[in-house]
Please model this.
Amino acid sequence: MEVKDYGLSRVSGRVLDGPTNPMVTPLLTDLYQFTMAYAYWKAGKHQERAVFDLYFRKNPFGGEYTIFAGLEECIKFLANFKFTEDEISFVCESLAGSCEDGFCDYLRGLDCSEVELYATPEGSVVFPKVPLLRIEGPVAVVQLLETPLLNLVNYASLVATNAARHRFVAGKSKMLLEFGLRRAQGPDGGIGASKYSYIGGFDATSNVAAGKLFGIPLRGTHSHAFVSSYMSLDEIVEKSLRSSDGSSSCEDFVSLVQTWLNKIQWSNSLRNVFGETNQSELAAFTSYALAFPNNFLALVDTYDVMRSGIPNFCAVALALSDLGYKAVGIRLDSGDLAYLSFEARKFFCTIEKEFGVLGFEKMIITASNDLNEETLDALNKQGHEVDAFGIGTYLVTCFTQAALGCVFKLVEINNQPRIKLSEDVSKVSIPCKKRCYRLYGREGYPLVDIMTGENEPSPKVGERILCRHPFNESKRAYVVPQKVEELLKCYWPGSSGKAREDLPPLKDIRTRCIDQLELMRPDHMRRLNPTPYKVSVSAKLYDFIHFLWLNEAPVGELQ
Model:
């Protein structure tokens, strides 16, 4: 079997890797893309210059904003777009015996050198109808790009938006950890969720592969299985632990832990708060601390949080403190998270006051257990002492909405604008090659996104411009922008020689997302009944849309 070399392609003098997932090849598409490409070729239309827009029609999750993600993978796909002989043979066999040899020769020479791709920068806040991508090139090859580009953008943007919504509800000060790998839709879903959750505002992931691939910070401690695997303290054979500065050594760390547990149990403030703790749990915590004295964070709900987990954790943490180490904190994975976080914090405060261990009251409390937007919101309303949230299933599966629903529509061919009509007005496309701008008001907030024809003059700061709803005649407003930002930039010039935008590092994309969300007006961001953001067209483009609509719509006849 022939193996495709997707290793490296050179773009504008720079070496660019292939897509993260090696399954992203020219065959990752729908059959009808090949049937159309063949029909274009057969009719001699395959080289006609076409323009397609990739956009979505409605913001997800009942909100009024979306985060655009997946651009880097799209560019990597274009840079490495090339058929192998094995793939060409399979395509021609799949076309029901009607495929001529000349079409195989055409596929053999096909790449994206004649394609240009313009895009909104990855990590941007985006809105319905405004193109995320504009792809120009020979109609047959651009048609072959449709399905893979939609596949690379749809889920990426959906999960980045979901992550941003979780970040908005949790607040800026809380740490958000993506814990969804085991519940994600396969390996690709797991890797993608980690990457795009990070873009959307999460701080770290448990996914080791994503950490290696993308440089995302890793977080994780231990499971209930680790705790329940221990039966007693006698299982701990290696009991010694050197102090953090290396100046001394504790030969029996287990005894030090037991001493501290006894002190806690009989202290003035905590006497009679708890009785005998689970000794197998204490053994597990002690063993874990011996392995990771600089990063000790314990899962405390295997048996009983307040009667066992918290006291056992504190005993180990205090023993570590004697040797110059600082424990990280605890994780709660069940129960009443708000109540338990308050009780745990009170316990930590008592320890600090009772034993004079500075900073003990600030132990990090992490909560997990099928969290989502609603539970985060409920916790905020109840009040809680949680510092970090581990979120998995509802984040990575985008449980409340299965797909974003991006579409890929022809808007121009051979310099002739095209329109797609529908009885459902929301499905009517906006024709012609367009330029897209974001207009900002006096307070620095974005006011409106406006699309214009390619050759129309750009909106100017301080000059009044009429913004019209694309399809509703009565919805229109004048805007005097204080700042004008052009949205679409060239990320893949092909062989055109045009200047190309660099692909930024993942951290910069994440920063862009956070900064863009900061700029949004609060009423656009709220969870319930957010104010819709305005998307408009210029007066000239509005007139042209409706002229073309009337021109293309058949005229009925009454009998």
The CA atoms of residues 157 and 175 lie 21 Å apart. Confidence is low (pLDDT under 50) at residues 1-8. Residues 31-164+401-552 form a domain with the nicotinate phosphoribosyltransferase fold (CATH 3.20.140.10). The first strand starts at residue 8 and ends at 11.
